[in-house]
Each structure stands twice: as C-alpha cells, then as structure tokens.
Write a structure and sequence with these properties.
By secondary structure, this protein is α/β, with parallel strands linked by helices. It has a single domain (about 5-200), classed as TIM Barrel (Alpha-Beta Barrel). It has five helices and eleven strands. It has helices spanning about 20-30, 50-60, 85-100, 110-115, 130-145, and strands at about 5-10, 35-40, 60-65, 65-70, 75-80, 120-125, 150, 170-175, 180-185, 190, 195-200. The strands form three sheets. The protein has a five-stranded mixed beta sheet. It has a four-stranded mixed beta sheet with strand order 3-2-1-11, covered by helices on one side. Strand 2, helix 2 and strand 3 form a beta-alpha-beta unit. The radius of gyration is 17 Å and the shape is globular.
Amino acid sequence: MTAYAELQVTTNFSFLRGASHPAELVLRARELGHGAIAVADRNTLAGVVRAHAAAKELDFRLVIGCRLDLTDASSLLCFPTDRAAYGRLCRLLTRGKRRAEKGACHLAYADVVEHGAGQVMVALPPERPDAGFAEFLKRVAADFAGRAYVLAATTPSASIASPRWRRAPACRSSPPTTSTTTRRRGAGCRTSSPASAKAAPSPRPGSASRPMPSAT
C-alpha cells in the first residue's frame, strides 16, 4: 500500500459530474493500493455515508470532505477534523441549500469562515490563476492559519520549459512533472492544475496532504 490518496473523489451524488457509487470507489482505491480515499462531492455530504460503510467493512481509511463551490470566490475542499467540525460543515451546507432552489447551493466565502472552526481548507486554483486568486489565497491563509493549503498538481504531457499556469502575484508557478502534491499556503506557494495529492499524516479525519513550510 502506498501513501497516495485522491483528494477530489466525486461520486454519483454529484449530479452530472460523478458516475460511480461511493462503495465502488472505496473498493477500487483499496485495489489500487492507495493509502486512503477522500470523498468530496460538490456542496453535499450525501456520498460519505455509503463510503463510510464500505471503508469500515474493508478496514480502509476514508477522509470525509466536501467541495465547496462559492458564489464569490474560488472553490475550496473542506475536510472536518472532528465531529464538531463535521456538524458545522453540515450546518453550512444546510444554509446554502435553503437559499437556493432544489438541487443548488448558494454559499459565500464569509459563510465558510463563520463555520470554519476545525476545518482543513484546500484552495483549488482556477484554470488560469491571476492576481485575484493570489489575494484569495492570502485571505484563506489568514482565516485558517495552520489549516490552509493550496492544491498543486501537474500535467505529465506539458513541457518542463512551459508551465501550464501563468505566474500569479504572491505565488510561484511550479514546472509540470508527473507527480502531484498539496502544499500549505504560506507567503509563497506553488500552483498548477487541480488533481490528486500524495498522502501524509493529518488530524482525523484530516486530509491526506503534505504541508509546505511558509516562505519567510
């Protein structure tokens, strides 16, 4: 078994985005020798119950999370670290769904901060990170000190001399390689296309990610 874990697994509870049942995804991650699997459906926790049942039966580590698509900022992966934080995440999603028509969820970044105690946050870069995203990273780092990360991924088909992402203020763009990792947002960070990450120990249920020391 390796220390690798997918951080953005989408189940069929993400309508028109995921196709496989949660239990199938947990089983497949175990078959592939992954160290864990993180179920993070979009603005819902609907898939984690069946994923939990399958993970318990297989004695496999499940990281419970949710992708928060916000109305006024870039998306975030949210991973509660204890039962109290899980409850706050549930209340956050309930608020967003009550504001919207059936099947939708309207959440702003201020709502996330209000329910942010005990949450590990992973910022997802847009297709082309810009100065606005760099400023957003600073806000996330300040609001979730010690629990803020940015997802850094790479594209194997890209040239080392031609980074896929534009250089954004306050961040350094990393040249594409064949590996992927998640790094903590500090004064400087590396960003590239969203994908998966290598697992490392984290608070339960925590995210399977590797922190990067802040730049001085």
